[in-house]
Automatic annotation (TrEMBL):
Positions of the EAL domain: 24-274
Segment of the intact protein contained: 398 to 677 of 677
Recorded superkingdom: Bacteria
Protein name according to UniProt: EAL domain-containing protein
Length: 280
């Protein structure tokens, strides 16, 4: 009977695996088609200056506008796109679309674009970025590229030289989700970066959890002393905003200020100064 039960369990398990694989293959086909048709949309989440409350720019967040699944989260399809070798094309589309949009904004505002580790590992990245900047007319200083600690550690030499080249061009480099990876605070000074974004998982606890508060203070303190700028991400309430501002985060992002929005829903402050039409 135990053997019978074992076989039944195995068949069930096997069935679940087959289903999972079929679902995955369907998703793969969908993603390939989406890339070919560029069925993607960028949302933009505004960021604010912690002292003045004024907008400083926005982060571009990718959405897959799927016919039946609705808006698919990048957390689901970015890893798949990497495995399928599609991230290069998607990443180029994101960069171009984000820069083209930001070029229409008020010139004080910047745009942050997320890079996957595979994009950072590609030695052609600096050339791609300079082409996109030339094509869209966005000044390099208004482009911020977000990378993760894992991307830095995985590629090492290649990644470091690529980042240095991007910074020489004037592009701002920020380290996303800081605190969730493996790099220690003592390595920070070795990375060619301008900004760190403290991960939402620490920010969410600053008002209620002593450990989160201590970690955020330590990251902000050391980062600032190393000459880095600090963003707090995932700010959802006034306590988190006040704490982050008090302990040295110059830039804030989170639902308290705004959810990610389609370009046309961005606040009026984003509108570029339209030049008055020439009097005929
Ligand atoms: P991320 O770069 O850390 O982006 C922040 C994520 O936190 C976004 O999720 C954003 O919608 C969410 N968020 C912002 N404020 C709040 C808040 O106050 N509360 C909560 N609960 N969440 C908040 P999203 O858009 O689902 O993106 C998830 C991740 O997918 C991003 O994390 C980023 O790693 C990746 N991603 C997004 N767009 C791209 C892209 O164009 N390329 C690449 N390679 N990765 C991307
Ligand atoms: Mg990001
Ligand atoms: Mg982040
Ligand atoms: Mg995050």
């Amino acid at each position: 009977a135990a053997k019978e039960a074992g076989r039944a369990t195995f068949r069930m398990f096997e069935g679940a695996m087959v289903e999972e694989m079929q679902a995955r293959i369907a998703l793969e086909q969908d993603l390939r088609r989406a890339v070919a048709r560029e069925d993607f949309t960028l949302f933009f989440q505004p960021q604010v200056d912690s002292r003045t409350g004024a907008f400083t720019g926005a982060e571009a967040l990718l959405r897959w506008d799927h016919a039946t699944r609705g808006m698919v989260s990048p957390a689901i399809f970015i890893p798949l796109a990497e495995q399928l070798g599609l991230i290069g094309r998607i990443g180029k589309w994101v960069l171009t679309t984000a820069c083209r949009e930001a070029a229409t904004w008020d010139p004080h505002l910047s745009i942050a674009v997320n890079l996957s580790p595979m994009q950072l590992a590609d030695p052609r990245l600096p050339r791609t970025v300079s082409q996109v900047l030339a094509e869209t007319g966005l000044p390099a200083e208004r482009l911020e590229l977000e990378i993760t600690e894992t991307a830095l550690l995985a590629n090492d030499e290649q990644a470091l030289s690529t980042l240095s080249e991007l910074r020489r061009m004037g592009v701002v480099i920020s380290l996303d989700d800081f605190g969730t990876g493996y790099s220690s605070l003592s390595y920070l000074h070795r990375f060619p970066i301008d900004r760190i974004k403290i991960d939402r998982s620490f920010i969410s606890g600053v008002a209620t959890d002593q450990h989160s508060a201590t970690i955020v203070r330590a990251i902000a303190h050391l980062g600032t002393n190393l000459g880095l700028k600090i963003t707090a991400e995932g700010i959802e309430d006034g306590d988190q905003r006040d704490f982050s501002a008090l302990y040295g985060c110059d830039n804030l992002q989170g639902y308290l200020f705004s959810r990610p929005l389609p370009a046309e829903k961005l606040p009026p402050a984003f509108a570029g100064r339209t030049t008055a039409p020439e009097a005929a």
